[in-house]
Amino acid sequence: MELDYYAILGVDTDADAATIRDSYKKLALIYHPDKVAEAERYDAELQFKNICEAYETLGNEENRMLYDAGTQYGGFDWHDYYQQQDDSYSSHSRHYSFNTSTTFTAYQPEIKTNRTPNTEINIGVSLEEVYKGKRLQLKTIRQVICRKCCGTGARSGARKRKCQECRGRGEYKQRIQISPGVFRREMLPCECCDGSGMMYLKTSLCRRCSGTKLQALESLVDICVPKGVKNNHRIIVEGHSDEQIDKMTGDLVITVSVKSHEIFTRGGNDLYAESKISLKDALIGFTKILINHLDGHPVKIEVPRGCILKPGSVVKVPNEGLPLEQSFGKVNGDLYILLHIEFPEKLSPIALKEIASALEPVKAKSALSSKEKSNDETCPPLKFEILSEQDLPNVNEYDNNETDPIDYSFDEFR
After folding, report:
1. Which residues form the CR-type domain (predicted)?
2. What is the H or E stretch that residue 252 is in?
3. Would you say residue 10 has pLDDT above 80?
4. How many domains, the chain?
C-alpha cells in the first residue's frame, strides 16, 4: 500500500525543498520517540518512521521525481520498497538517530559470522617429548546443545506464550550516545525470547538445561604431538568448540609451547650442548661419553691421537639433533657440543720434568656412574667433525614461530 508522503509531511505537491525540510524537522521533533510519553511511544515510532521515509523520498530531487511519476501513473510503490528493504534483514535495518541539529541518519546492523568462536588452549611439552613425540589425552568441558530437549529449552509437548518483556515484538529499543548531544537508537533482539517474540513459561522449561538449550559436556580428546614439533605450533581439532543453536561449531585450537631445557638448546632442528674435557684429553685425544642424549642414549666420541683440540672447539655430530617435523624416514638435525678445556691450577716441580704425567685430568665433580661406565665400554663411538665456535650455525636464523597447523577431524577420536 502506497503512502501519501506529501500528506505525511503536511506540504503541498508543489512545495519547494526548503518547505519540505522545515516541515520534516518540525514533525520529527514532535513525533520523535524520546519526546513522547511511554504510553504513546509505540504509535510515535510508527509515525516517526513514516516521516523519515517520506523525507528520504521527497528530500531527494531524483527520488521525488520518481515518486511523483509513480503517483501520477500508478507506477513504483515506494512504501513497499522500504518494507522489502526492512524485511531483507533479520532485524530492523533502518535505525535513526536524533541530535540537537535535527539530523537523522540511517544505520545498518553489523554482519556477524554464523559460527561459534574457537576454543584456544595452551599445552607445554619438554624437549624430551619433542625428540620422542608424545600422545596425550586432554579433558575438555564445552557447551553443547541439550541432549534431553534437543535445543528447544522446554519439556516435550510444551507450548510457547507471548514474551512479556518485548510484548511479542521480538526486539527492544536501546539509546546509545555516540558523541556529546548525539544519540542513536537501535532495535536489538530481545534476550528473553531470542528475538522470536514467543517464549516458554518457567514451569515448562527443560529440567536438564533450565531453558538455556545448552548443557556442559566433559570429554577426552586424543592429541598426537609429532616428533620435532616447533614452538607455538597449532593443533586443530575441528568442531570441538562450544555449540550454539543455528550456528556452525568452531574448532579447538591447541598451541604447543616447548619448554626450555637445562642442558640442550634448540636451534631449528639442531641441538646445542656443552661438555668439559681435561687438558690432557685436548692434547693427546680421548675416547669417552661427552653427554647423554634426550632419550638417554650416550653420545660417545673418539678423538684420535695427534688431533689437538683448542679452546672453543665444537664437536659436530651429524643426525643427532631433533627429528624433522612430518618427515618420512629417519631424518634428524645435527648435535653441536662446545668443548670447555679444564686447565690445571698449577704444576709441581716433577710435572715440569714429566709433562705427560703432569697433564693428568682434573677430577670433575660429576663422575660417571656405574651404568655410564658400562655404556662407555660397550657403545661404539659416533662419527663427528671438529669445528670452531665461529663455524656454528646462527640460531637466530631459525624461526620457530612459523608453523603450519595440523588438522585433526574430531570423528577420528570418537
Report:
1. 133-218
2. strand 252-258
3. yes
4. 2
Which range of residues forms the domain containing residue 49? 5-88
The predicted structure's pLDDT at residue 299: 92
Q: Is residue 58 part of a domain?
A: yes
Residue where one domain finishes, among candidates 46, 64, 88: 88
Question: Which has the closest alpha carbon to 280: 326, 339, 341?
Answer: 341
Q: Which of 68, 88, 108 is the last residue of a domain?
A: 88
Q: What angle do CA 295, 299, 301 make, to 5 degrees?
A: 175
Q: Which of 306, 310, 292, 309 is nearest to 382 (CA)?
A: 292
Task: Give the position of cell 556442559.
Answer: 216
In a domain, 244, yes or no: no
- Long-range CB pairs of 152-156, under 8 A, 24+ apart, other chains included: 152/206, 152/213, 153/200, 153/205, 153/206, 153/209, 153/211, 153/212, 153/213, 154/200, 154/204, 154/205, 154/206, 154/211, 155/204, 155/205, 155/206, 155/207
| Run of H or E including 407 | strand 406-409
Pairing type for strands 233-238 and 214-225 reads unpaired
Is 237 part of any domain?
A: no
Residue 283 lies in a domain: yes
For 267-280, the DSSP string reads ETTEEEEEEEEEHH
At 80, which CATH number? 1.10.287.110
Higher-confidence residue of 349 and 151: namely: 151
Among 32-36, 104-108, 264-268, 328-332, name the most confident range: 264-268
